[in-house]
Every structure is written in C-alpha cells, then in structure tokens.
C-alpha cells in the first residue's frame, strides 16, 4: 500500500523537489522583504496544491477519510473543473492586500498596465497551454457521443461491425464546455488582479515597491499556469483511459479481442499527465516558498525634494 501511495503521489513529490531546486538556485534572490503579502501568497499556493492532492487521492480511492459513494460521483463530475476553480480562488487571495490610490505615494505619470510589472516570457507557457487545451478540447468534443441514459456527450464509441460496439468515457462536450467557461473566468480574474497590483500610486521606496509588485505579478501568473497544468493533467489522464479500452467477443474459433487503433498512445498520455501534474505542483510549491521573508530588507532609495 505504501508503494501504491508513492506511485499515485509521485507527481506531488516530483513537484516539491522541483520547487525546492528552483528556490535554492533562483528563488532566494527574489524573496519577500515586507509588503504584507506573505500570508495570502502561502494560502494561494496551499489552496491549489492541497486541493489537487485531495483530487488525486479521490481518483484512486486512497482518501484517508471514509467518504460516502456520493463524493466519488462528485469527483467524476467535477475533476476537470476543480483545478480551475481552485486557481481562481487562489488568484483572488493574491489580490490582497488591495492598495487604493492615495496621496502618500510618489507622483508618477508613467502609465501602469497589467503588463507593467511582468516579463514578456512569463506569458509564453500559459499561452501555449491554452492553445493545447483548446486543441484537445475540440478534438475530444468532436469525437464524443451522447451517453444513452443521460444524453451527455461523454462517450466514445467504436463500431466493431456486425452490430457490435465498444465504448468508454471521454472528455467530451459535457465536461469541456464548463471548463472553457471557467478558463475564461480565470483569464478575467487574472487581468483584474494584475490591474489591482499595477494601478496604485508608487510607494516612496520605489525600488522596494517595484520588487513587491513584480513578485506579486509573477505569483498570479504562476497560480494561473499551475491551474491550467493540473486541468490538462486530468484531461490527459482521462484520455489515457479512453484509448486503452478493449472488448472481447466469443466466436466459433475462440475469443476475439478488439482495441482502438491508437491504443499505443496510452503510455504517452499517462506520462504526459504525470509531467503536467508535477509541473503544476512545482509552481504551487514555488509560490509557497517565495513567501519566505528575506533576512535583509531592500535598501531605501534616496529621494530629493
């Protein structure tokens, strides 16, 4: 049983190791030095990471508490949208503390946009993930068919001839449309939070203020990217099960087994799912570790009046 836990939670352990490696090599250089954002940062990372661990345990029946069967039905229905919901809530936490426009700052006429405190390459990974998720969504949705008892587009059926078919569940329109809506909400919330971070008047200590805002902007994008990675991981895990379906029928010459023409893709989907989950957990861990306060405060920048 211990080994089974290790296999199931392998992406979690891998993500933690990656986060620690990042922190030891680069993270300590961008640590917090005040700003009152440490607690929301830790809460956001733990919310998404801890929630995703719970989903993994529910997926394999290893959840430590005895739960009624309804919870596992809930998992089956909401496993794709849950990481996105947790990511949205995590971003909302990262909006705090909210600083309003005040006269105590330094006059600055430079326009500040949601991109002011971001690096351009920070958007490459989430953009690629969005494109990949959209592509997979369209392909699986087009392949999905209505489930006979519910009418939901969650079935993938293969015609075997002779009036025989075999089928399995698939990430169809019934699952993907709510996920696409939540991805849209995730993007809107991310933009809103970045605006709240960028717009307030700069503090007197300009260097420290820029450091804090850059730190917060990076963590917002990290939580959003982590949510997309975990969402993609659940999609790929589902596809690994879909392509591995088999069916056997008795004939006059013995039993005949059928499988899909792309059954060989199952290891690739399973491996890609684990990698996506590990990277998602790594980003959550990096966000939590980034909240460790620096031992020295950023020096104040001299100003003239």
Automatic annotation (TrEMBL):
It comes from the Bacteria. Keywords: Membrane, Transmembrane, Transmembrane helix. The chain crosses the membrane at residues 6-25, 37-60, 80-99, 120-143, 177-198, 219-249, 269-292. This is Uncharacterized protein.
């Amino acid at each position: 049983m211990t080994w089974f836990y290790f296999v199931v939670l392998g992406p979690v352990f891998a993500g933690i190791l990656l986060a620690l490696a990042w922190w030891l090599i680069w993270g300590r250089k961008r640590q917090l030095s005040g700003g009152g954002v440490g607690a929301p940062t830790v809460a956001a990372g733990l919310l998404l990471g801890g929630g995703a661990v719970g989903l993994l345990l529910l997926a394999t029946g290893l959840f430590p508490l005895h739960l009624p069967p309804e919870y596992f039905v809930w998992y089956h229905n909401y496993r794709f949208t849950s990481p996105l919901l947790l990511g949205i809530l995590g971003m909302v936490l990262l909006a705090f503390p909210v600083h309003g426009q005040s006269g105590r700052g330094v006059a600055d006429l430079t326009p500040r946009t949601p991109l002011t405190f971001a690096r351009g390459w920070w958007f490459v990974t989430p953009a690629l993930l969005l494109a990949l998720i959209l592509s997979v969504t369209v392909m699986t949705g087009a392949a999905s068919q209505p489930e006979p008892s519910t009418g939901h587009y969650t079935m993938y059926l293969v015609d075997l001839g002779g009036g025989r078919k075999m089928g399995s569940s698939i990430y169809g329109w019934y699952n993907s449309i709510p996920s696409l809506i939540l991805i849209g909400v995730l993007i809107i919330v991310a933009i809103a939070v970045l605006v709240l971070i960028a717009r307030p008047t700069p503090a007197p200590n300009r260097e420290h203020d820029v450091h804090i805002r850059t730190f917060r902007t990076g963590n917002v994008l990290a939580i959003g990217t982590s949510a997309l990675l975990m969402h993609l991981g659940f999609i790929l895990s589902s596809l690994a099960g879909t392509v591995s379906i088999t069916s056997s029928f008795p004939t006059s010459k013995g039993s005949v087994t059928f499988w899909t023409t792309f059954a060989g893709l199952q290891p690739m989907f399973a491996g890609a799912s684990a990698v996506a989950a590990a990277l998602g957990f790594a980003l959550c861990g990096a966000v939590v570790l980034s909240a460790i306060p620096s031992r020295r405060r950023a020096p104040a920048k001299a100003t003239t009046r």
